Amino acid sequence: MKLPTARGSVSAALIDALGGRGGSLPATPVFDDDEDLHLSLFICYELAYRGWDGVDDLWEWDPDVLRVRAAAERVFEATLTELAGPPPRVDPATVPAELAKIVEEDDGPSLSGYLRGRATLEQFREFVAHRSIYQLREADPHTFAIPRLGGKAKAALIEIQADEYGGGELPKMHQELFKQTMGWLGLDTTYGTYVDSAGAATLAVNNVMSLFGLRRRWRGAMLGHLAAYEMTSTLPNRAYGNGLRRLGGDAASTAYYDEHVEADAVHEQIAAHDLCGSFAAAEPELAGDVLFGARCALKLDELWARGVLSAWESGQSSLRHCVV
C-alpha cells in the first residue's frame, strides 16, 4: 500500500518520517481534526498489518511512532466512551442476552435498505470502495485475539475465523470473494487503494478494530465487536446482494454477500454464546468490555452510514475523491 496524502500536521509528520523525507515526529502530538487523527492512527496501525510500500518494517516498533499512536488512541478512546458509554458492570451470565438486546435496540439508519432498493450503480460502487478498506483484510483484525484467549472461547473464535478464511481455500476466502464484487463494479482490487478516498468516519470504523485487536487489555471489547458484526450481518448482506442483482450483478459479483447470509446465521449463535458467553464466564471482570465493544461497533457504523446517506440524499459523493 502506498503512503496516503496527509490531512493535517501530525499525519504529515508521520508520512514524511516513514517516507524518508526527514523531519521529526511531535513530542506531544496535537491533531488538527478527526481527519488528521484517524489517518494518523491508520498509518500507525497498518505497520502491524501488511505495511507501507518502501517503509522499513522496523518502524512498527519505533518509540516515536508508538508515542504518536498512543496519543491518538487516548483521544479515540475518549470519543468511544462518549459514544458508547463506559464499559458497564454486568453479570457475566447475562452477556449473550445483553448482546442480543444491544443489537435489537440498534436504531441506525437503513443503509442496506437504500442499497437494496434505491442506490444507483455509482452509489453502490462508492459503498464498496468504503468497505474495501476492511473487506480486503477481512477477519485479520479479530484474528489478533486468538493467542490472547484460551479454552472454549478460543475454539469458538477459531471456528468463526476459519470460515472467514475459507477453510484454507483461497477462492473461498471472504477477502477474495469481495474482490469479485469489486471487479464486477470496475473497482481497483489492490489492497488499500481507496484509503485516500475514505473520510475519517470510514477510517474510524477500521481503526476501532485495530485498537481492540492490538491492545491486549481490549480483548473483551474485540470479541464484543466481532459479535456485533456477526449478529447484524445476515439481513443487511441479503439486502446488499439483492441490491446488486437489481443493478445487474451476476452470481460471482454477489457471492460475497450471499455467502454471509448463510455463514453469519450460524456465526451469530457461536459469537454470542460460545465466544462471548464463554469468555465472560472465564474472565468475568471483562464482561462489561464485551458489551462496550459491541456498542462501539454499532455506534461507529451508525455515524458512518448517516454520513454516507446524507451525502447521497444531497446529491453529493460520500467519498473524499470520486472513484474511477
Could you walk me through the main structural features you see in this protein, from its secondary elements to its overall organization?
With 324 residues, the chain is mainly α. The chain has two domains: 9-80, no CATH class; 88-313, Up-down Bundle (Heme Oxygenase, Chain A), CATH 1.20.910.10. 64% of the residues lie in helices and 0% in strands. The protein contains 14 helices and no strands. The longest helix has 32 residues, at 251-282. The model has no long low-confidence stretch (mean pLDDT 96). This is Iron-containing redox enzyme.
Indicate the topology:
Blueprint lengths: L8 H10 L15 H13 L16 H22 L10 H11 L5 H7 L3 H15 L4 H4 L7 H14 L9 H11 L15 H15 L4 H13 L2 H13 L4 H32 L4 H27 L11
